[in-house]
Amino acid sequence: MGKGKSFFAVEAATGNSLPVEFAGATLDEVNEASALAWEAFPSFSETGLETRAAFLDRVALEIEAIGDDLIVRAMAETGLPRGRLEGERARTVGQLRLFAKEVRAGRFQELRFDAGDPTRKPVPKPELRLRNVALGPVAVFGASNFPLAFSVAGGDTASALAAGCPVIVKAHSAHPGTSELVGHAVQKAVSDSGLHPGTFAMLFDTGFEVGQALVADHRIKAVGFTGSRRGGMALVKIASERKQPIPVYAEMSSINPVILFPNALQQRGADIGKAFAGSLVLGAGQFCTNPGLLIAIDGPGLDAFKDAARAALAETPAQTMLTGGIFKAYCEAVQRLASHSSVAELARGQDGKEFQAATVLFETDASSFLAHPELQEEVFGAAGLIVKCSDERQVLEVLDNLEGQLTIALQVDEADHPAAQVIVPRLQQLAGRLLINGFGTGVEVSPAMVHGGPFPATSDGRSTSVGTLAIYRFLRPVSYQDFPDVLLPSALQNSGTGK
Amino acid sequence: MGKGKSFFAVEAATGNSLPVEFAGATLDEVNEASALAWEAFPSFSETGLETRAAFLDRVALEIEAIGDDLIVRAMAETGLPRGRLEGERARTVGQLRLFAKEVRAGRFQELRFDAGDPTRKPVPKPELRLRNVALGPVAVFGASNFPLAFSVAGGDTASALAAGCPVIVKAHSAHPGTSELVGHAVQKAVSDSGLHPGTFAMLFDTGFEVGQALVADHRIKAVGFTGSRRGGMALVKIASERKQPIPVYAEMSSINPVILFPNALQQRGADIGKAFAGSLVLGAGQFCTNPGLLIAIDGPGLDAFKDAARAALAETPAQTMLTGGIFKAYCEAVQRLASHSSVAELARGQDGKEFQAATVLFETDASSFLAHPELQEEVFGAAGLIVKCSDERQVLEVLDNLEGQLTIALQVDEADHPAAQVIVPRLQQLAGRLLINGFGTGVEVSPAMVHGGPFPATSDGRSTSVGTLAIYRFLRPVSYQDFPDVLLPSALQNSGTGK
């Protein structure tokens, strides 16, 4: 595709190059893609709702039409198992169809009508009509850990297209073959829908140059990103230093605390420990919502939890990580925790081959956790840390010192409700989603989902990247005052959808 | 009030000190106010809707109860005439009451309910309930040009309080007496409503230290500002460099272009010229929505417009500006334009005493305007610039090179509609509000109003600072998964307002 530096895809399980070569984009190609997207923007943003919805449905169909090739390719490139990838594909096409429905419903336009009153004193009241308009072309960065649902045609792309924004994807170099298959599917849907070819483009790059140039381009009006804190903040910086700064929706780092309440621990500490182990190792821990931190008051209930978690983890095989780089970073982070003076290793999963990570569960006490802010840093992978507290007061102190999170889960029994009632109002200031007696690792794609949260979980805690609310990230309100019907956008005309 | 450096209010018309002394805040007092606001936040954000609405109504009543003292004081400090200030007071209390209604209606909570399905395969569907929660304590900067409607109890304060956010106002030093009267009114309403005293605080400072410390304080979670581009961007920088960056809603600079279409000019060029002159000099041009730029195709219609504007402006007396600093900056900016090699002076209003500014209307041609980006810089005051274009193509070129605006107005007759239809889609990318056959200087406080726009009109073009939508600036969504009723916030309970 591109004319830049070429590269090979890498098999996650072996670190070996796969046979097909991919070509990175040049800066000229970034410029060309941005120019095309800008050209496509006026028509794409004003397509009728049915046209845009049908296009999203068609993208879903085209992705399904790739068939098993997509799964096989993604398995090779990411090391993720078939079942997980089939589920992720279902989620990806389901997401596109959900946004198609959302577009058809039209609510996201948020139409408002204020009647005028020419007789009002001292000044006449103007007539005002309001709707949301699309921000403009959006740059989307594919994520390493969800090669389908947070990548080329993932949540950011689906919600930006639904909003009426052309999309340029910077594909993640960890799964170029998967990206190419999906990218072609979207391009076919664009063309078969008779849309401007600039509606969608995809660029490859194994480095940072292409992505940085994209975010700096004056025709790009918003950015969607899922990845590391360092990567996200680098994009935020570029976006804020532009002549016209633009919003960056970067989902970055979260350790998703789980608070174990005393009665729940006492009644079913072992059950919770086993369930926790299952959540921790899901997808080799490579979820944004991986439960990386446990907070509990020490005692027999916590001991039962630990025993069960230890037993479950001991039987857990090592799992292939997404890339050699992620594997290396995980090993280093685990090593840092293992050698930390205030941290003890509590349990460890089975070892594996190279690129396969063993799960590790650590523990520390509340005072050490509070004294060492580095213990809050996200470890991307299946590593967890238990923070033992001496009493409820210490639990509160730990909570008051937590950074922003995507999710916080509470394990509670009925007898814990009074204590939980005290804590929930604080927790809602810390996270986008709170869960009772579950773990955050399943992220439902639905209207009431929030997959977002205060910094550093995301760079913009007022938004979500999963669920129908995600469309609002790419919209802004415009008010039309005293417009004759013929000059109004059709949704606001007297004969339009809104009146 | 404060323990910092004291200062006197200044009479706008004379530059003389007024007799009462005010005390600036110290950094200790900033810290104390933030600590109190943080303490007030949990209870204030969870007040029942009726309690919060009644509080806003009470603030309006208390402001009215100050009576004429408020108007007299504001007249002295700002130089604005009685009629304008009485209108602004009506707008301020009307705004508070509108937000009270909005709070009672409860729509801003955006409650969402997704039913669960424990039998779903392969994984059960969780139950999700969503609501918007308040961001936290908000710092509001009073504006110099609206001593009531954009100051201590103005739009930012009203919308933040409505959202459930405690507010700390940094009062503008140009009208400390006015601020103190309103600040006491709000404090009385807080106390009479039985709310936590940290719900509202006001700080004085003649410099930047207090405001900067406020924005940097970790307990402040959002900022509302109306003022200069330099001032707004300084706050954006501080907010983005915090350990936890926060949103800044800064309304900064806009020249509010007016596009004069050929048929409208031909039919009623003189009428438009007269109406324009009236809008330009309103409030000595000290409106964010002041029409500072006219774009038109040269010809007899434009000549008629210019003749009428010239005649009207020649009869316009000079007007007292808000402060000596603003007067000086206006004179310098006018001088820069007058001596600009590509700019000609077209009309001038009457001269006045010191601190009184004369209106000036300049003209240039499109090529010069495009070649000199500095001609787009906002002149705060009653100065306008006409950009003469040779044809429609040149009008489009000028539009394509405009920065973001609060408003863009079109003067059109029916015969201009085809040409306007081409331009409107571009304009909606440039401004928050578009008007037909009017000027942007009246800003209606209502549900369909957008007083915002792309950078540099504001630092966040996805929002509005006037109208009921303004409340959304201070909210973020939170999702509650599988919560027992007793742990949910009341609005989301089965017996709550939403179900």
TrEMBL record, chains A, B:
<keyword id="KW-0560">Oxidoreductase</keyword>
<dbReference type="Pfam" id="PF00171">
    <property type="entry name" value="Aldedh"/>
</dbReference>
<dbReference type="GO" id="GO:0033721">
    <property type="term" value="F:aldehyde dehydrogenase (NADP+) activity"/>
</dbReference>
<dbReference type="InterPro" id="IPR015590">
    <property type="entry name" value="Aldehyde_DH_dom"/>
</dbReference>
<dbReference type="InterPro" id="IPR016161">
    <property type="entry name" value="Ald_DH/histidinol_DH"/>
</dbReference>
<dbReference type="InterPro" id="IPR050740">
    <property type="entry name" value="Aldehyde_DH_Superfamily"/>
</dbReference>
<feature type="domain" description="Aldehyde dehydrogenase">
    <location>
        <begin position="19"/>
        <end position="410"/>
    </location>
</feature>
<dbReference type="InterPro" id="IPR016162">
    <property type="entry name" value="Ald_DH_N"/>
</dbReference>
<dbReference type="InterPro" id="IPR044151">
    <property type="entry name" value="ALDH_KGSADH"/>
</dbReference>
<dbReference type="InterPro" id="IPR016163">
    <property type="entry name" value="Ald_DH_C"/>
</dbReference>
<protein>
    <submittedName>
        <fullName>Aldehyde dehydrogenase (NADP(+))</fullName>
        <ecNumber>1.2.1.4</ecNumber>
    </submittedName>
</protein>
